[in-house]
Amino acid sequence: MFLSNRDILELQAFRHDLHRHPEVSGEERETARRIVEAIRPLATASILTGLGGHGVAAVFDAGVPGPTLLIRAELDALPIEEVSAADHRSTVRGKGHLCGHDGHSTILLALATGLSRAPVARGRVVLLWQPAEEDGTGAAAVLADPRFAEIRPDVAYALHNMPGLAFGTVALKSGPVNCASRGMKIRLSGKTAHASQPETGLSPMAAVSQLMPALTALSRGAPPAIDFTLATVTHASLGEQAFGIAPGDAEIWVTLRTLVDDGMADLCATAEDLAAAAARDAGLQLAISYHDIFLHCENAPDAVAHLEAALAAENVPFDEGDLPMRASEDFGRLRSVCPSAMFFLGAGEKHPALHNPDYDYPDELTGIGARVFMSVIRQTLG
């Protein structure tokens, strides 16, 4: 193990500090500052800041030709109130690190610590702390940043902690591992009326009542079926919060999922046709917009082989688990520039689920994740 007991304690304290000060997608300025402060003393690293927003990259360059390995973690927290008695619980009302990105960021700091003491023999290691993963905009923004050309990798790796999976075990496979998804916002506009004379207005109530079950009926199958689709209504609103007004406007938010990107266009078209028919039948105006767009994650076989060798070398049990999973991850955009692979590290079968208000990243995972990544680095770059 390349980390001392003192290192582990300092990394835990760092993670707890991040946890106390969560920032949601696009707002990670102070989180990025804390990352930079932690890695700046490591003189062997060059640092890029402000990538795609608040992204940070630490580059460890051997000065000898060789491949560039990128390892990604996320900076952002969630707009969810944390329910915890822990000393390091969130100090920010309505926000919390309830997905473990504070832990993933700490794993990269552990790697930075190890690489500063024992540099690689050739090539480069890029440690990327990426902003705005939760809303799907961060990876795209980093890739679009002109400075990304300076750190363009030959292969990219990432992990995600996974409650429900036995502690310290890993799920890993080639091919699709996370589904494509996007949020579809449907707005229906009619005309308000006095509640005593609803016939003088144009209410979207019937259209909403028709659309919600029709949209959810688009769901079929389950991963790994290539024709898997899932439509989940996540929010609906109708009219004003008043007893005297018959509604004139409504919104339905639905999350659409497919196993791979190729199926998303057809699912969107079908959902749009349903919305258009409901609006037309009711004489309503229709507006549709898309948000939180995630491409599917697909693990490249060669990158998976390197991870499997690292897991075996570190005696970390692994299998395919229940992959692919229905959840999405914006790490999928990295495959547009290089082969990539993500593995899923078990947080415990009974651990609170991701995005639950009582979730907290298990600190014991930091050493495991760091050992696996460091093994991949040493295998490739010496």
UniProtKB/TrEMBL annotation:
The keyword Transmembrane helix does not apply. SUPFAM superfamilies: Bacterial exopeptidase dimerisation domain, Zn-dependent exopeptidases. Residues 182-279 form the Peptidase M20 dimerisation domain. It comes from the Bacteria. Keywords: Hydrolase, Plasmid. It holds the Pfam family Peptidase_M20. Transmembrane segments: none annotated. The keyword Nucleotide-binding does not apply. This is Amidohydrolase. It comes from Peteryoungia algae.
